[in-house]
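User: tokens in, sequence out, please.
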């Protein structure tokens, strides 16, 4: 069985993510300290709130070195996606820098935060295997990533403006939406991530 560690840094939807991963066949560890992830095949970095708050929680729990050195599949969700980038205009936060670019407030959104279901224009990345083009996913955010190069973009969405909603950099992937709150399509995406880590 594939083991997925979900990082507990104090600002994430841990129970729902862990339950969803278990539903798609993963052996789930909720990691409260860096040593907990040593035997995992994949890593999920959740996040709610602000990028600065999430990075502070990661540092307080001592996870930054372990995440930086992690060389197996990693999935960042919502703010967990945003901290994969170099920096965020929210809190002027310095992030991991795995993906070139920054995170900025949505400029032309009719209302913020963007809450609810939305389409994702997906490319043919394995993260989206067996998910139809009509699929929708659940979003809660006011900021979105702006990658420096388009080759990391695997999904985009529109809410007053087109924004990046999914990225890949090597074995690291991230979604601005919440797969654990996105019904069967979200479960399929999590199953695809588990398969990537197997």
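Assistant: Sequence out:
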């Amino acid at each position: 069985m594939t083991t997925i560690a979900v990082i507990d840094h104090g600002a994430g939807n841990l129970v729902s993510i862990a339950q969803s991963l278990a539903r798609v066949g993963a052996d789930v560890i909720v990691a409260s300290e860096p040593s907990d992830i040593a035997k995992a095949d994949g890593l999920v970095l959740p996040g709610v709130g602000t990028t600065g708050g999430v990075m502070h929680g990661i540092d307080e729990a001592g996870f930054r070195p372990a995440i930086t050195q992690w060389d197996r599949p990693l999935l960042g969700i919502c703010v967990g996606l945003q901290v994969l980038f170099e920096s965020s205009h929210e809190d002027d936060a310095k992030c991991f820098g795995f993906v070139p670019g920054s995170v900025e407030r949505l400029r032309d959104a009719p209302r913020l935060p963007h809450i609810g279901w939305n389409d994702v224009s997906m490319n043919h990345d394995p993260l989206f295997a067996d998910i139809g083009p009509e699929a929708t996913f659940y979003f809660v955010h006011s900021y979105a990533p702006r990658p420096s190069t388009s080759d990391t973009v695997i999904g985009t969405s529109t809410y007053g403006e087109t924004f990046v909603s999914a990225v890949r950099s090597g074995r690291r992937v991230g979604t601005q939406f919440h797969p654990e709150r996105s019904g069967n399509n979200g479960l399929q995406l999590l199953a695809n991530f588990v398969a990537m880590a197997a």
